[in-house]
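Protein modeling request. Please complete all fields; requests missing the sequence field cannot be processed.
Requester role: graduate student
Desired output: 3D structure, token encoding
Chains: 1
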Amino acid sequence: MSTVDRAKEAYERHAPNLLDLLASHRLSKDSLDLLLIAFKDQDQLQVYAKRNKDSRYQILKTFDILNRSGVLGPKKEEGDKQVPEGKYYINRFNPNSKYHLSLGLNFPNAYDMAQGYTGSDIFIHGGIETVGCLPMGDTAIEELYTLASFAKSAGQIQIPVYIFPFPLSDENLSIYAAQYSLETVSRWKELQRIFQKLMESIRND
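Delivered output (205 residues):
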């Protein structure tokens, strides 16, 4: 099967159900904005959506992350098998992935580069193998790829992807702080401010 056919078949297989899912949330693929949030300790990737004219997102679907490499904490160098932590966005659609389909992230971002962090080719992808990516399984990546295609076609230039070690409440931060270095905890406190601001953009109903 050609790579174009792989992406096309994923679209044809999942678009009808995903359109129904969007409609149940009073959303349309023609005005769709997406937001992805991953929590490493929970092995979850949450997909939020809104109309592109609206300001607040609503939860659309939660996917399981099927495997994880490394430990909680940032990715610092090529080959450390760490999953990055921070704010990223989808910067490429890869229908030619050896992991079925994949969505690339812009790691290292400006913050990472300022810290001297190195690495490349961080993806949300199919399959279950990983050395620092987010493996979702083939069915889930087909759905995610299709949803991201909807949003891209609707004009969303950058689909944000936030990767957090865990939900950054004060309580959780206190629990994990005793187990990790001061450097890591300091970064988590920075991410907590981002997390709190992000939560303000999400509807609770």
